[in-house]
Design a protein that fits this description.
The protein has 311 residues and is an alpha/beta fold. It has 2 domains: 157 residues, Double Stranded RNA Binding Domain; 116 residues, no CATH class. Helix content is 49%, strand content 16%. It contains 10 helices and 5 strands. Strands 2-1-3-4-5 form a 5-stranded mixed sheet. Strand 1, helix 2 and strand 2 form a beta-alpha-beta unit. The protein starts with a helix and ends in a 15-residue tail after the last helix.
Length: 311
């Protein structure tokens, strides 16, 4: 189970980080445990947003689901008072402890507690007010996230050979997206990064070549069966998604031109579909991320993390 989870959970950690630095391809997901049911749903949502801000403001990609490495909170109510005002006010004093760790094998990397207070006309609004008072880029937060970041890099440095072996095994089973997911998330500033570059390029090429043949066959079958505007649009949408660096792209262009010419006969309007153009400036890593983002749309979005003993 852990082996399967190890390969799948990273499939979604492919979002390009908003922070433009050497750590921006490190992925850290925000995870709100189901056990934290005492916190109102609206306050939980704000807390998740706050955690995402902490991550991105400190140079890491915030992945909203299914990242191996997570930042997760535990909220404790230290005191609750009701002020005799008109109307009455609820005052909450909260301790929010944040944890960064490996959610797959359950290894806690670092933790930090923050005390916040909030006042509202009811308990939910008091929770919201308190959580909004959390700082997202204070020195304490920066130190906390930096420590977690170092541990994540250490993981890849220590497990580089295992990651490469797992990626090769997946590639041999034609599971190229899963293999890519293991490699594309290796931090740029880790010692493992230079070791996986060649494998990343090879597996990316295999993935787009396989997808090209599949998409070409699908588009051909759809067009041959209909040869009308609807089938042209369906086939055109498929062909428009093919990577121009793939080996069968010449066949894609030929079919596209054939359909486009027929559309001009069937309709007096320009066809809305365009093929992708090869851009030599697009790095393999970014192309791999696009492949994985498309693949991720069809994958399950819920995982169970192992955070036993973290608090």
């Amino acid at each position: 189970m852990k082996k399967i989870f190890f390969t799948i959970c990273l499939l979604f950690a492919v979002v390009i980080g908003t922070a433009q630095n050497s750590d921006s391809n490190i992925a850290l997901g925000t995870y709100i445990p189901y056990e934290m049911a005492q916190v109102p749903a609206s306050a939980r949502q704000i807390l998740e947003t706050k955690l995402g801000q902490m991550v991105t403001k400190n140079g890491i990609s915030d992945v909203s689901y299914n990242s191996r490495f997570i930042i997760t909170p535990n909220v404790s109510v230290m005191s609750k008072d009701v002020l005799a005002a008109a109307p009455p006010k609820v005052v909450l004093n909260l301790d929010i402890t944040l944890y960064i760790g490996d959610g797959v094998n359950g290894t806690l990397y670092t933790s930090k507690s923050f005390n916040v207070k909030g006042v509202g006309s009811n308990e939910t609004k008091a929770y919201i007010a308190a959580i909004k008072n959390m700082k997202t880029n204070s020195q304490d937060v920066q130190t906390f996230v930096t420590e977690g970041k170092k541990k994540i890099i250490d993981f890849f440095n220590s497990n580089c050979e295992l990651i490469q072996k797992e990626a090769n095994t997946l590639a041999n089973q034609n599971r190229y997206e899963e293999a890519l997911a293991l490699l594309v998330n290796v931090p740029v500033n880790s010692t493992c990064y230079d070791k996986v570059g060649g494998s990343l390029k090879t597996m990316f090429k295999k993935a787009i070549d396989r997808d090209c043949e599949t998409q070409y066959a699908q588009a051909t079958a759809i067009w041959n069966a209909g040869q009308d505007i609807d089938s042209a649009n369906t086939a055109g949408a498929i062909l428009a998604s093919v990577d121009p660096a793939s080996s069968c792209y010449s066949k894609v262009k030929s079919l596209f031109s054939k359909i486009e010419a027929r559309v001009k006969v069937l309709s007096d309007r320009p066809w809305e579909y365009k093929l992708k153009v090869l851009d030599a400036n697009v790095a393999v890593a970014k192309g791999a991320q696009e492949v994985l983002m498309a693949y991720a749309k069809n994958q399950p979005s819920t995982v169970m993390y192992n955070i036993r003993g973290w608090y």
